[in-house]
């Protein structure tokens, strides 16, 4: 299950091209925190200075690590953080199948604090507990930086969009895929003074 070296994110084609333009124009090369590792991790690793990906599936994390190793991407890290113990369920960190992911979200914050001096240029949210990832990690994005929320059309992610809007973030772009049920990928920018 190793992702191919030329892996491309599973976003709408326009979203991939838009993200590529953002990353290519960034000087110096951007620092990225990604929730939900995959083909996007391999793709991002060739376009950024530093990548931290948080993944909840052990098998998928190993597969992505293999892809990154083949690429020689020593600057990319995949951290495995599985669902919280069911006894510690916290609805504020709800993910799929009534699991919560407080440790998953916290690991992203802690890794950025420890390895990237507390700031990223891009926060890519395409994994578990997306509302909590946005709510708890948006402040890690430097002013002028970007947040990508995939599947933004899903009703359960509406609180993340409301959070960004109320915190003063600006929606830059929205892309709809031309396959399947046409998921939406949104890009938000953090203006100076936004939370």
Description of the structure:
It is a single chain. By secondary structure, the protein is α/β, with parallel strands linked by helices. The chain is globular, with a radius of gyration of 15 Å. It has helices spanning about 15-25, 40-45, 60-70, 100-115, 130-135, 160-165; strands at about 30-35, 50-55, 75-80, 120-125, 140-150, 170-175, 185-190. Helices cover about 35% and strands about 25% of the residues. A seven-stranded mixed sheet has the order 3-2-1-4-5-7-6, sandwiched between helices.
Quick description:
This protein is α/β, with parallel strands linked by helices. 33% of the residues lie in helices and 23% in strands. It has a seven-stranded mixed beta sheet, sandwiched between helices.
Helix and strand arrangement:
Layout: H1 13-25, E1 31-35, H2 39-45, E2 50-55, H3 58-71, E3 76-80, H4 102-115, E4 120-125, H5 130-137, E5 141-150, H6 158-166, E6 170-176, E7 184-189
Parallel strand pairs: 1-2, 1-4, 2-3, 4-5
Antiparallel strand pairs: 5-7, 6-7
Give the tags:
195 residues; alpha/beta; 7-stranded mixed beta sheet; 6 helices; disordered N terminus
Radius of gyration, in Å, reads 15 Å
At the third CATH level, what is the topology name? Rossmann fold
Mean pLDDT comes to: 92
Structural class estimated from helices and strands:
alpha/beta
Count of distinct structural domains = 1
Order of helical and strand elements: HEHEHEHEHEHEE
**Proportion of strand residues:** 15-25%
